[in-house]
Amino acid sequence: MQVILAPWGADDLEVLRRANTAELTQFLGGPEPEAALAQRHAEYLAGESMFRVVNDGVTAGYAGWWEQEHEGAPAYEVGCVIEPAWQGRGVASAALAEVVRRAVASGDGRPIVGYAHVGNEASHALCRRVGFELEGTGMFPGDDGGAPIEVAVWVIRP
Length: 158
What we know:
Elements: E1 3-7, H1 13-19, H2 22-25, H3 34-46, E2 50-55, E3 58-70, E4 73-82, H4 91-105, E5 112-117, H5 121-130, E6 133-140, E7 149-156
Helix pairs in contact: 4-5
């Protein structure tokens, strides 16, 4: 298995569309409308820290980091979405570990934070494998005014 992070490109909107399923968004509030996907794609293109996850030459999902505030201070939040055909093979662990390595290498010492729905056991296991420590729980506002989402707060402090 060879997992690499490829720079997000103009043709990668399809990666977001493939990940926009009930199965892959069940802990994130459900699938997004096409306009929201297009907006997110544009944001990813404008940044430098979102990547297409490629396993053995085939796109398996996406991962990256972005600026966030954690406990009133700057942090990097990370995220990783791997398509079902690639789950359970170590692809997510390899991709997220590389995202964390790159975020830490940015050199500014910010904590790396991962938020996972409290019921998402697969994400909790992934965070543990990559070296995050559980610091507690918190509430995220729901998308488009929906119900708040309870999340576990996972942190790596470089």
